[in-house]
Known about the structure:
The chain is mainly β. The chain is built from no helices and eleven strands.
Amino acid sequence: QVQLVESGGGLVQAGGSLRLSCAASGRAASRYSMGWFRQAPGKERELVASISWLGGRIYYAESAKGRFTISRDNAKNTVYLQMNSLKPEDTASYYCAADGAIEAGLRVADYDSWGQGTQVTVSS
Length: 124
């Protein structure tokens, strides 16, 4: 449906910040609800935050509230995840995903296209 390319991951000390970006391309690249997921080794992929096509509906996992901010720039076909006050438990591979529905779903199965992932490692 849409091609997604993530960037911005890296190694950061606890308490630091990272900004992840996901650039979308393809047919109607801006017309998707978007989600950020993460997956640590041995754990299931989980939704961190999502944003609807027009940005009016935003969801955060409890672990992300107050620390992470999701946003999108439809003119640039890009979605962002600003991560502040990072903790070691935030260490995971982070994926952006596109949902062709009007509103962003909460499940992995709701999403049609996935980026390749970008690694975030938070050291203590």
